[in-house]
From TrEMBL:
<feature type="binding site">
    <location>
        <begin position="8"/>
        <end position="13"/>
    </location>
    <ligand>
        <name>substrate</name>
    </ligand>
</feature>
<dbReference type="Pfam" id="PF01725">
    <property type="entry name" value="Ham1p_like"/>
</dbReference>
<feature type="binding site">
    <location>
        <position position="71"/>
    </location>
    <ligand>
        <name>Mg(2+)</name>
    </ligand>
</feature>
<keyword id="KW-0546">Nucleotide metabolism</keyword>
<dbReference type="GO" id="GO:0036220">
    <property type="term" value="F:ITP diphosphatase activity"/>
</dbReference>
<dbReference type="InterPro" id="IPR029001">
    <property type="entry name" value="ITPase-like_fam"/>
</dbReference>
<keyword id="KW-0378">Hydrolase</keyword>
<keyword id="KW-0479">Metal-binding</keyword>
<comment type="subunit">
    <text>Homodimer.</text>
</comment>
<feature type="binding site">
    <location>
        <position position="42"/>
    </location>
    <ligand>
        <name>Mg(2+)</name>
    </ligand>
</feature>
<feature type="binding site">
    <location>
        <begin position="154"/>
        <end position="157"/>
    </location>
    <ligand>
        <name>substrate</name>
    </ligand>
</feature>
<keyword id="KW-0460">Magnesium</keyword>
<protein>
    <recommendedName>
        <fullName>dITP/XTP pyrophosphatase</fullName>
        <ecNumber>3.6.1.66</ecNumber>
    </recommendedName>
</protein>
<feature type="binding site">
    <location>
        <position position="72"/>
    </location>
    <ligand>
        <name>substrate</name>
    </ligand>
</feature>
<comment type="function">
    <text>Pyrophosphatase that catalyzes the hydrolysis of nucleoside triphosphates to their monophosphate derivatives, with a high preference for the non-canonical purine nucleotides XTP (xanthosine triphosphate), dITP (deoxyinosine triphosphate) and ITP. Seems to function as a house-cleaning enzyme that removes non-canonical purine nucleotides from the nucleotide pool, thus preventing their incorporation into DNA/RNA and avoiding chromosomal lesions.</text>
</comment>
<dbReference type="InterPro" id="IPR002637">
    <property type="entry name" value="RdgB/HAM1"/>
</dbReference>
<feature type="binding site">
    <location>
        <position position="177"/>
    </location>
    <ligand>
        <name>substrate</name>
    </ligand>
</feature>
Length: 198
């Protein structure tokens, strides 16, 4: 079974990739699986695509093997696209999911249901030694719930309702989320490359 480094320190993302890649017989190794801690990579880009490439290229140069990176976040129309590329550190550098949710909910306090449209975006970058990085973007359209609900998933899942559902993503099983998510939609676009790896 081929091993693929996924350049993330987010355990929620790593679990989703592991599950989605099981059908390709690719074993996922995230940055949380190394004995020597890998330094944090500064996300200095202004877009999800740029940040994904910064992460995949940094880890590919370090280990000289194929690397996939994910930069993702929540884009809320009523907040002019916030938190966007700042999703992880919206309420501070400590990257606290609960504080981030509370900040969003406070800002949307007076925004009615119909105006709470939002989407999750996921940019996946793949870097290989001596080859150009390629990047694909996936989306999941939905809206921000009036209150937080559910225990599954991670990040902003308890406040995001995907279109066509009345449950938050945190009220979806991991299998359900992985069939409709922005991450899945991005992964589908790199499927050809993944199949060739397995
Ligand atoms: O499916 C998702 N369900 C809920 N929330 C999500 C999802 N996908 C991204 N998000 C949120 C979490 C975090 O606040 C930000 C990602 O930030 P992002 O920099 O890409 O990831 P991160 O810093 O957590 O880990 P890393 O950079 O090591 O991959 O968007
Ligand atoms: Mg990050």
């Amino acid at each position: 079974m081929k091993e693929l480094i996924v350049a993330t320190k987010n355990s929620g993302k790593a679990a989703e990739f592991r599950e989605m890649f099981s059908k390709y017989t690719i074993e996922v190794k995230s940055l949380l699986d190394f004995d020597d801690p890998v330094n944090d990579i500064e996300e200095t880009g202004t877009s999800f695509e740029e940040n994904a490439a910064i992460k995949s290229e940094a880890i590919c140069s370090k280990f000289n093997v194929p690397v996939l990176a994910d930069d993702s976040g929540l884009v809320i129309d009523a907040l002019n696209g916030e938190p966007g590329v700042y999703s992880a550190r919206y309420a501070g550098e400590e990257k606290d999911d609960q504080k981030n949710i509370e900040k969003v909910m406070a800002k949307l306090k007076d925004v009615p249901e119909n105006d709470r449209t939002a989407r999750f975006i996921c940019a996946i970058a793949v870097s290989r030694p001596d080859k150009e990085t390629f990047i694909k973007v996936g989306k999941c359209e939905g809206s921000i719930a009036l209150e937080e609900r559910g225990n599954h998933g991670f990040g902003y899942d308890p406040i995001f309702i995907p279109n066509g559902s009345n449950r938050t993503l945190a009220e979806h099983t991991p299998e359900e989320k992985n069939s409709i998510s922005h991450r899945k939609n991005a992964i589908l676009q790199v499927e050809g490359w993944l199949k060739a790896q397995s």
